[in-house]
Amino acid sequence: MNTQPLKKNISSYIIQTHEEEIKRIAMELHEGVGQSLYSLFTGMQLIEKAIEQPAMKSYAGDMSHLLEKTIQEIRLLAVELHPPTLTTLGLISAMKSYIKLYTSTYGIEVEVENLGVESQISDRDSITLFRVCQEALVNIARYADTMKASIIFKWKKSRLLIMIKDSGKGFEVETAMNKSSGLAAMSERMHLIGGKCTIFSKIDKGTSIEISLPLY
User: Fold this and answer.
1) Histidine kinase domain location, by residue (predicted)?
2) Residue 110 near residue 147, CB atoms below 8 Å
């Protein structure tokens, strides 16, 4: 008896349910916590302008900057959880919005190149591709020790290819795959939608991740 299709269906259902819950949390963060913090931020700016004592004015300014930084982090977290433009504007727009926040948060410049005409893909495939690209970029921020990276989208008639590269520290792929659930999850997510994720890396030579998805 072949149980592989059943396992694949169960895994897909779990991921879909998980994504729906993530979407709900992201909306609450953005519309609830984010809006409340923004109200506090604008209030602190008004207080700062009204204060005449230099020491207190400086303190209020520091608090405003802290609130502004927190708002930025909340925005990035909400987009990481569920990008609002993904289903409305497509994968490329969602990735560009995410990368803008990613760069302002981590200081890593990401060069984006989009080759060919973007095809319409399902919501399931879009969120999977976004998650895999997101995991790759977060890993660069955490481990690569570099300030630059690149991501290239190549749209062909029958296939989408995505290449994510950095010139950071690199790592031993086999060892990392056994230790990192994130790297394994990237491959598993792509497998569930009929795609593939291949990771190449060398110590002190950087890392290259190649993602491919058939287009029908």
Assistant:
1) 32-216
2) no
Residue 111's beta-bridge partner residues? 150
Measured CA to CA in angstroms, residue 107 lies from 101, 141, 147 at distances of: 10, 9, 7
Under the banding of pLDDT at 50, 70 and 90, the label for residue 7 is very low
Helix-helix angle 181-192:4-28, to 10 degrees: 110
The answer to whether 149 and 155 are in contact (CB under 8 A) is: no
Question: What are the tens digits of pLDDT across the range 11-69?
Answer: 554 555 555 656 656 665 656 566 777 777 787 787 778 787 787 778 777 877 777 87
- Amino acid letter, residue 14: I
Cα–Cα distances in angstroms (integers) from residue 151 to residues 5, 15, 111, in the given order = 32, 25, 6
Q: Is residue 213 classed as helix, strand or coil in its secondary structure?
A: strand
Asked if residue 116 lies in contact with residue 156, where contact means CB atoms within 8 angstroms, the answer is yes
Kind and range of the H or E element at 52?
none
The dihedral formed by the CA atoms of 106, 97, 80 and 126, expressed in degrees to the nearest 10: -140
